[in-house]
Write a structure and sequence with these properties.
It is built from 16 helices and 16 strands. The chain is an alpha+beta fold. It has a five-stranded mixed sheet, with helices on one face. Strands 2-9-4-7 form a four-stranded antiparallel sheet. The longest helix has 27 residues, at 115-141.
Amino acid sequence: MSAPLYYLKDDFEPYRSLFLEQIYQTRHYKTGEIICKSHTVWHNMMYLNSGRVKASIIQNDKEKLLAFYGQGYLIPYYVPSEVKITHLIQFTAVSDVTALQINREKFEELLSQHLKLRDDVYLSAWRLIHLLTHEVESQTLDSGLERVATFLYTYFENTGHALFEISTRDLQSFVGLNRTNLSKYLSFLINAHVIEKKRGLIKITAPEKLRNFCSERVIHCEIMPVVHSSISEENKWKAIKDRDKSYDGVFWYGVKSTGIFCNPSCRSRQPNKENIEYFDTPQKALNAGYRVCKRCRPDVLSYNPNRDFIERVRKYLDIHFNDKEIITKYLKNSAINSKYLNKLFKIQYDITPHAYIQEKRIEKAVYLLTQTDRRVLDIALSSGFNSMSSFYSIFKNNYGMSPTQYRNSEKNE
């Protein structure tokens, strides 16, 4: 069972008197008793008067623990219709629980009358959705870098928290990557000045730039403001002097004497330090009256003329990764040469096409090893490996054990 990302309690204690004024039922649950389970709709809201509840999803007899809810908190009663959740969500008492149960219609009346309560409820729901969307979608639809970036970005956007505690092992569980690949993508984001990481802690420093590495399916929540760049002014000035391209998208600067704003890497004449004003987004610079630099075009940082082409390549690889002949023919007939394709793909996803294909093959093999009883040889061939020796070698490099050992270890958990 994984560790939860959220420990939630007391946020709704100020509203307790409001709940007591409604028509409610007092419910009692014993330790281990299931309080409710559903896909996307809860017909009642429950205020936890005492005790502790866990929210989790059960998948193939394994539990994915999402959050703990304590006294003074609400169990979210719905998920917005645009979020497609197929997993069964289960709330279970982990101690003796007493809850005030309010009918959904009555509760929605309260939301319409008390806007602060409504916003707090929506934020609570988004915390749960943030985890669910990753469980349902990211494991199959996104590249490794997209999984990590999207997980971090939506967490910060939907909670407003710039710093949170999470172990590498738990982060592995949430994004579905082995330790080696997770470390690789975290290092990429650190070197891009997007995050800072210490043991058990991750801090986002440039959410606007992090957004560029996210999956297209990122869900946005308008309730909480996005936490913006926390780079010191000393480091910002150094980046401008060095014309450090890695800071593009982390911050922008305006030159007071010219009324123009630029990226840190702009090749225009270097301004005086006292004439500089820093901005977290291009829009803030525009709102302050600055014009776009025509040389570095800071307003189109995320524009990449090759992005659509590389995304089409990746989607093709997602479908045909286990057919070497088809992939070889596709890449050979590509509109650009293989060397340049490798370069563009690595810029976009921090991995070469060949390494990406190997990742997809290993992911399928892991799925078949844990979810089926098929022979290891059949799994290797259906995952796209042409020989057992290459399969065993690549698998051991990724997981530190043979496929058979991995299957046995998963069964014993």
